[in-house]
Each structure stands twice: as C-alpha cells, then as structure tokens.
Amino acid sequence: MDDTIPAGLDTSTAHPARRYNYWLGGTDHFPADRESGDMLERAHPTVRLSALENRAFLQRAVRFLAEEAGVDQFLDIGTGLPSANNTHEVAQRRVPRSRVVYVDNDPMVGLHARALLTSSPEGRTRYIEEDLRNPAAILEHPQLTETLDLNRPVGLILVAVLHFIPDHAQARGIVRELLAALPSGSYLAATTFTLDHSSPEQAAIAREMIAQGRVDAHPRTHAEFAEYFTGLGMIGPGIVPVSEWLPEVPAHQRPAPELTAVYGAVGRKP
Asked: What's 164's DSSP letter?
C-alpha cells in the first residue's frame, strides 16, 4: 500500500496498526512495517496465529455484548486498519441499531475510515483520530458525544492496544478513567500480550528485544492484566488465553497458550 499516503505520514517507522494488518494478511502496510513484523515473527514464530486468535476474540466478545448483554453502543480504541468483520459489522449484524465510535492514532486508519463508517440504516459509526494516552480528549470529542449516549451502557473495546503503553500504572490509570466515564452495565473487553506461558528462553529473548527498543509491545502478567478489571464482574471463564474465552471450536482444535501469548477477558461494570 504505497500509492495513497496521507500527508505527513511517517512510513519509515513501523506502526502497530499497519504491522497487525500485515500479520492478518492485509495490504495496508509499508516496508518498515513488514520488516518489523518479520523480525518479531523470527522471535515469536506463531505471531500471525496470535494476531488471528486476537481478532477472533474481538469478534466473539462483540457478538456476546450485542446478543447476550444487550449492548448497542461501542467505543473501540486502537481500532487498527479495517479488516473483515469489524466491530460495527459484527454488532450491527446482531443489533442493527448499534452505534460504534472508532479511535486510532494512525493516519492510515483515518484514510480508510470510510470502510469503518459504513453502517446499517438504523445504526451509526464514527471515527476519531486520537491517542489512547489522551482519554479525556477521546471522551470529550464531539464525534463521540454526538454518537454515544454515555448515560447508557457502552462496550469499551481495548483489544491489543494496552500493551503499547510501556508503563503499566499509566495503562491502568487510562482504563480507570475511561471506565469512570461509563455508566453501570457497561463492559470492558480487552486483550494483552503476555510472556506468562513462554519458556524462560523465549521470555529472555523477548525482554532483551524490548530493552533494545526492537519490540514496542510490553507484556503484562495475569495479575497485571487483572488490575484493568478491578471492580468489574468477570464474564465466562474470566482471564484466559484469547483462544479459550467462550471458544467456538473443540479444545483439541485450539492453540496452546504459549502459541498465542495473549490474554483476553470481558468484565461488566456493576
């Protein structure tokens, strides 16, 4: 994807959204994204599987929220580039009136936002270019306040984004600020990279790459990830490898935790 480049876009530095698109088999990425993706794949050979399982978790979580929990409003931060079965498509397939606000900080996502802004006639979708590290700016953005009613339950989607904030305490504070703005009955669906199931050798390699600045995802332990859900009622199996959260395939067909290296969970605000 080198033909239409937004003004001011830095294509020389890898971006998580474009690298994720590369792993998912998309076309919206540049050489720096592919080089970064290939380097990480050499260190974690099943990273493409991780990306696919993470994406499948997102879709199952949104289906659960729309079908079972009755949620018809979603705030998806760290949206990534449009792919098959985006949040609004999954939600509106179940609840056509669903409203979705997407947030990302990559201009490439904005360029393709038209694919995210399609909607059922009854529903509505909007896109905001903003950074997760600025939760107040997201919550106060006119596109959000015009689209979502924050007096009614919202499904907050933080899938594969919190681990890009190096400081766990900062990430925890951001989650709390976002949840504090949402009413009772809202939900948090989140995932994070983890080394909990990695071998000591794999974990050492990953930590060395992080220390060298070659990896921009910062792993969280089970206990750290659980802190994002403090005070929430956990849904289903609680915090588990993404492939184990309300799975739709038999156990023998699901990848082992060390192959995905991603935790996922959904919690309800009382």
From this structure: G
Query: Domains plus CATH for the chain?
Result: 16-268 (3.40.50.150)
Which pTM was predicted? 0.90
Rounded CA gap, 223 and 173, in Å?
16
pLDDT on residue 1: 46
What are 220-226's contacts with CB under 8 Å, separation 24+?
220/162, 220/163, 220/168, 220/192, 220/193, 220/194, 220/263, 221/194, 221/196, 222/194, 222/196, 222/263, 224/168, 225/190, 225/192, 225/194, 225/263, 225/265
Question: Where would I find the H helices in 97-166?
Answer: 107-111, 113-116, 135-140, 142-147
Model confidence pLDDT, tens digit, residues 120-135: 899 999 999 999 999 9
pLDDT at site 6: 56
Looking at the predicted structure, is the pLDDT value of residue 26 above 90?
Answer: no
